[in-house]
Amino acid sequence: MRYMMLLSGTNPATPPPPELYEAIMKLGGEATEAGVLLDTAGLLPSAAGSRVTLAGDQVTVTDGPFTESKELISYALYEVRSKTEAIEWASRFMQLHHDLWPGWTGTTDILQVMGPDSVG
């Protein structure tokens, strides 16, 4: 099963410490070696994006920034055996932020990608 993980957060006044980047790279290496991490990348702030909306009979385009209090920061695409396994990987990632970047708050949304194993 494939799961898209979308990380959003609010950064504290201090920049992320180098130890956090090192820990994220290590965790990513473990997930890649385990064959479950398919893709990951950071996302630019919403100010660089646009939102296309269909409401009623109208398609509208709104340029960023958007009004959400938390920015989408990055995504990761995993292929795992279960939702439980996806939650375990996301929890490890979030724990790194807790342990290494005091004051950071965020959320990882875990969404299953539609496919033959998601129907029924």
Q: Can you tell me the number of structural domains?
A: 1
The total beta strand count reads: 6
> What is the global morphology?
flat
Q: What is the helix content?
A: 25-40%
Please, what is the average pLDDT?
A: 93
Poorly predicted runs of 5 or more residues = none
Element-level helix/strand string: EHEEEEHE
By oligomeric state, this entry counts as single chain
* Individual helix count: 2
Task: Write up what this structure looks like.
- This protein has 120 residues and is α+β, with helices and mostly antiparallel strands.
- It has one domain: Alpha-Beta Plaits (2-Layer Sandwich), CATH 3.30.70.1060.
- It has 2 helices and 6 strands.
- The protein has helices spanning 18-33, 83-100; strands spanning 2-10, 37-42, 50-55, 58-63, 71-79, 105-112.
- The strands form 2 sheets. A 4-stranded antiparallel beta sheet has the order 2-5-1-6. A two-stranded antiparallel ribbon has the order 3-4.
- Helix 1 runs antiparallel to helix 2.
- The two termini are 14 Å apart.
- The relative contact order is 0.34.
How are the elements arranged and paired?
Elements lengths: L1 E9 L7 H16 L3 E6 L7 E6 L2 E6 L7 E9 L3 H18 L4 E8 L8
Helix pairs in contact: 1-2
Structural descriptors:
single chain, alpha+beta, Alpha-Beta Plaits, 120 residues, 2 helices, 37% strand, two-stranded antiparallel sheet, 4-stranded antiparallel sheet
Give a quick precis of the structure.
The protein has 2 helices and 6 strands. The protein is α+β, with helices and mostly antiparallel strands.
